[in-house]
Amino acid sequence: MSGQPRTSKTTIIARILALGASLGTTFFYILAALGISAAIGPIWIGAVIGIGLFVFVMWAIIRFLGWVLAGDDPSYQQYIAEGGDPYFDGLPPPLNTDSWTQRIGGLSEPVTDFVPPDHWQYQCQRCGARVEHEIDICWNCGNGNDTQQCHGCGLFVKEPSFGAFETTGVICPHCNSVIRA
Predict the structure, then answer these.
(1) How many CA atoms lie within 13 A of 40 on its CB side?
(2) Among the listed ranges 55-59, 106-110, 137-141, 152-156, which one has the minimum average pLDDT value?
(3) Are the beta carbons of 98 and 109 closer than 8 angstroms?
(4) Percent of the chain with pLDDT over 90
(5) CA nearest 132: which of 124, 5, 177, 1?
(6) How confident is the model at residue 42 (pLDDT cuts 50, 70, 90)?
């Protein structure tokens, strides 16, 4: 399940077409600098349509190959159902500005001074920070820690059931104060 929406495909397509328009305009000015007279309209439209057709053909080929090679894979089906697209998610950052973790369906990572190592491939379910193990205590928000310190008496209290600190709270056995995350 995706934590934040991906960059929409229409936004990425608009960026690609803007790139085509930019290349067409650049080509027109190069021709003008060389002293070749040409109308900008056909060059500009040709560049936009040419790049648009190239993108469509590549998208169709990649989606077809994904269907042939991984069509029955449940994780691939989930990736597609959540809005993932192998072509658009593989485009470089000027066109698709999502983080690589967000592109595969995760949360976008928090911006902090600490940068987790590249081999940490799992994510915290609460804040989206990369963690080392699938079941781990998050270095950013502390999610996964099943003990909390009581604010009243300082006693460390173990969570009796999963999510009790976040939902109902836990009563400290020493001073009877409610502990919440």
Answers:
(1) 10
(2) 106-110
(3) no
(4) 9
(5) 124
(6) confident
Q: What is the pLDDT of residues 146-174, one digit of tens each?
A: 777 888 888 888 777 777 777 788 888 88
Domain co-membership, 159 together with 115 = no
Query: Does position 51 have pLDDT exceeding 90, yes or no?
Result: no
On whether both 63 and 99 belong to a single domain, the answer is yes
The residues with which 170 forms a beta bridge, in sequence order, are 179
Measured N-to-C along each axis, helices 9-33 and 40-70 cross at an angle, to the nearest 10 degrees, of 140
Mean pLDDT of 44-56: 87
Strand partners, 139: none
Residue pair 141/129 in contact by the 8 Å Cβ criterion = yes
Whether residue 48 is found in the same domain as residue 18: yes
| Burial zone of 16 (CB within 10 Å; 0-12 exposed, 13-18 middle, 19+ buried) | buried
95 in a domain, yes or no? yes
Q: How many residues does the chain have?
A: 181
For residue 167, what are its two tokens?
């939902």
Q: Are residues 9 and 85 in contact, defined by beta-carbon separation less than 8 angstroms? A: yes
